[in-house]
Amino acid sequence: MAQRKAVVLLSGGLDSATVLAIARNEGYETFALSFRYGQRHTVELQAAERVAAALGATKHVVADIDLRVFGGSALTDASIAVPHHDSVDDLSTDDIPVTYVPARNTIFLSFALAWAETLDASDVFIGVSALDYSGYPDCRPEYIKAYEEMANLATRAGVEGRQRLKIHTPLIQLTKADTIRRGLELNVDYALTHSCYDPVDDRACGTCDSCLLRNRGFAELGMTDPALTTSQS
Amino acid sequence: MAQRKAVVLLSGGLDSATVLAIARNEGYETFALSFRYGQRHTVELQAAERVAAALGATKHVVADIDLRVFGGSALTDASIAVPHHDSVDDLSTDDIPVTYVPARNTIFLSFALAWAETLDASDVFIGVSALDYSGYPDCRPEYIKAYEEMANLATRAGVEGRQRLKIHTPLIQLTKADTIRRGLELNVDYALTHSCYDPVDDRACGTCDSCLLRNRGFAELGMTDPALTTSQS
User: Fold this and answer.
1) Fold of A5-228
2) Which residues, at least 6 apart from A222, have a Cβ–Cβ distance to it below 8 Å?
3) Closest C-alpha among B220, B186, B208, B166 to residue B44
4) How many CB pairs under 8 A join A and B?
């Protein structure tokens, strides 16, 4: 029997690197998908390339999509500043952060679906966690389930039940520390990854939301985030 | 009360031009969205621009997305030929045609969702018809309903019921002739539109699936398709 194929959404950050390692460990032939979506920094795409190679992805594709035409996010709109904080305790959990990109997971999953259909694959992996962002709408199990149902009505194979699309979310109930622990078991080299929203000279800033959440995860394991001491280029 | 905003997916073809006219007629301020998705011909984007201007869209945006990285469709892959037929009766209704682009409606709707969220709009219009392609999976009402449900779980406004996304499909039960009749009532100038998969010198070929279906619609109304006698550039 041929090895099963899976499309893995790979940002180059800590979560998606862990997910790629999990998919490989489950025996999938992996097709890693990243996006050039108008983000301010391309350092994360370099990280995605390193991670895909290090973890043995069969192929790595970077799809060009331009979300800047819609504006509205600090990650794609240079006129909106990325917020920085002194401590992870200062992060607000009530409001949608300005770093939110509208419908991003929905768009990313749609491209994964397109590639899966072309590859004749029925498995997609995404590194969302319902815990880190306190119920962020498009990171919750209900959303993923609804996406799967929609996707299975979008293709003839799905409608006929011949090939049901499955969206795998192995991190959905994991804290950042749990994720790091799992990745370390699978020999993920987190020095290769990049999660920072606002790098300075290609180094992680240490004070944006993403850096703070990640650093807390390493701290909980008694470790220091290797991205803080490693150049990301 | 401010005029309601709607995002309208606009390919520049007959169906989406009619949908834009319907949305305007229903009183929406319209934001027309087209895609540069690696299609072989840009003549359809020129048509979209003409149609958006003629029908009074407030804004027209062309989003760059590159579906060529996945391959697999005659519309985006130069190595796959677009099929031509002598008659509309020769069109197969059993198989997914080679002009199918994987997950295209899912991707297009995801971008519409992103723009709607940025505009604070809750209405999206798409010109799918369940009749023309005999139950093409992602043109059916069940698919559209599942997409709406997913989208309403993807945003906080949707989850809280403050702003439910509505996907409008005014053509879903219309034949091509019905659609043309409705568009003519709303003064759509179909000479501005472009639906051909394989234009020759910027003119509609008359023999691809899209041309044949469209020509039959005009013939049923005792008319000749104006696109056949008009340069599309």
Assistant:
1) Rossmann fold (3.40.50)
2) none
3) B208
4) 137
Which of B155, B153, B148, B145 lies closest to B114, judged by CA? B155
- A214-227 pLDDT, tens digit per residue, is 999 999 999 999 98
Q: How far is B148 from chain A (nearest CA, A)?
A: 9
- pLDDT value, residue A97: 60
Q: Could you give the percent of chain A with pLDDT greater than 70? A: 84
Question: DSSP secondary structure string, A46-98?
Answer: HHHHHHHHHTT-SEEEEEEB-GGGT---TTT-TTSPPPB-SSGGG--SSS--T
Provide the pLDDT for residue A96: 59
Structure confidence at residue A99 (pLDDT): 62
Q: Band of the pLDDT at B131, cuts 50, 70, 90? A: confident
Q: To the nearest whole angstrom, how far is the Cα of B4 from the nearest Cα of chain A?
A: 18
Q: What is the dihedral of CA A147, A151, A152, A155, to 10 degrees?
A: 180
CA distance A47 to A37: 15
Q: How many CB atoms lie under 10 A from the CB of residue B23?
A: 25
Across the interface, whether the CB atoms of A106 and B150 are under 8 A apart is answered yes
pLDDT of residue B71: 67
Beta strands in chain A (DSSP E): 5-9, 29-36, 59-64, 123-125, 166-168
The Cα of A167 is separated from the nearest Cα of chain B by a number of Å equal to 14
- Residue A14 per-residue DSSP state: H
Facing residue for A147 by CB, picked from B138, B150, B159:
B150
Dihedral sign from CA coordinates of B36, B41, B43, B47? negative
Give, in degrees to the nearest 5, the angle at Cα B155 between B114 and A10: 65
Q: What percent of chain B has pLDDT over 90?
A: 53
Residue of B nearest to A61 (CA): B69
What is chain A's mean pLDDT, rounded? 86
Distance from CA of A225 to the nearest CA of B (A): 31
Of A65, A71, A96, the CB nearest to B64: A65
Asked if the model's pLDDT at residue A94 lies above 60, the reply is no
Contact A173, A131 (CB under 8 A): yes
CB contact, 8 Å: A124 with chain B?
no
Tell me whether residues B150 and A159 touch, CB distance under 8 A: no
CA distance B9 to A176: 39
Q: Is the pLDDT of residue A136 over 80?
A: no
Residue B36 sits at the chain A interface (C-beta within 8 Å): no
Q: What is the mean pLDDT of residues A5-12?
A: 96
B117 touches chain A (CB under 8 A): yes
Across the interface, which of B66, B103, B111 has its CB nearest the CB of A64?
A: B66
Q: Closest partner residue to A67 among B101, B114, B155, by Cβ?
A: B114
